[in-house]
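2024-03-11 09:14:02 INFO worker-7 job=invfold-0412 stage=load source=structure_tokens
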């Protein structure tokens, strides 16, 4: 069976600043269990229906775990409310990052719409078109996905909002790109993307 894109992108090594490992356990199990379908017939997973005039979505190839040195650090704060929100949001966080880390250009940003709050649009003439990491890396092989080195700086600006930083890393060139993501809890309890911006180091 062909490994899923998500499994190849996230050869995860988790660290936490929590004194006890117990609160992290349920989060680790969720991350180990969540996967996305492998590509079939050359079609990108979760791709929206294409109109004849829609630009193509270009996705890079995942880097096999045996060929990458990038291990993802998930740094969880001690605040129990934030930890609970992270636990609930992680399935969609992984799906969002597995797409974002493999986009070769801005057109593919519309794949994020599936995991975004109603009314939030990415890509296209009316969307938020902050570029994904791959096209911003000058020396990285654009045909390969980049790794997720760190997910940290978790805060909750509101009871139903979760903000965090993601550091992407290219194994081949050593380049990094940092982004800040903001998610909001919807009425059905799922956590969906609302904002995406560049972040400082």
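2024-03-11 09:14:09 INFO worker-7 stage=emit residues=201
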């Amino acid at each position: 069976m062909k490994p899923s894109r998500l499994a190849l992108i996230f050869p995860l090594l988790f660290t936490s600043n929590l004194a006890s490992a117990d609160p992290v356990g349920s989060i680790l199990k969720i991350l180990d269990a969540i996967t996305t379908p492998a590509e079939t017939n050359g079609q990108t997973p979760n791709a929206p229906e294409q109109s004849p005039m829609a630009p193509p979505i270009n996705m890079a190839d995942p880097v096999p775990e045996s060929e990458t040195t990038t291990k993802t650090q998930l740094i969880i704060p001690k605040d129990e409310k934030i930890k609970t929100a992270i636990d609930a949001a992680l399935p969609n966080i992984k799906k969002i990052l597995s797409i974002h880390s493999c986009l070769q250009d801005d057109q593919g940003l519309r794949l994020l719409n599936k995991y975004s709050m109603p009314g939030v649009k990415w890509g296209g003439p009316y969307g938020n078109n902050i570029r994904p990491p791959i096209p911003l890396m000058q020396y990285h092989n654009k045909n390969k996905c980049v790794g997720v080195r760190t997910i940290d700086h978790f805060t909750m600006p509101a009871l139903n909002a979760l903000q965090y930083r993601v550091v992407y890393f290219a194994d081949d060139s050593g380049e990094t790109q940092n982004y800040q993501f903001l998610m909001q809890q919807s009425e059905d309890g799922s956590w969906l993307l609302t904002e995406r911006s560049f972040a400082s180091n």
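2024-03-11 09:14:09 INFO worker-7 stage=report msg="The helical segments are 5-9, 22-33, 80-100, 133-136."
2024-03-11 09:14:10 INFO worker-7 job finished
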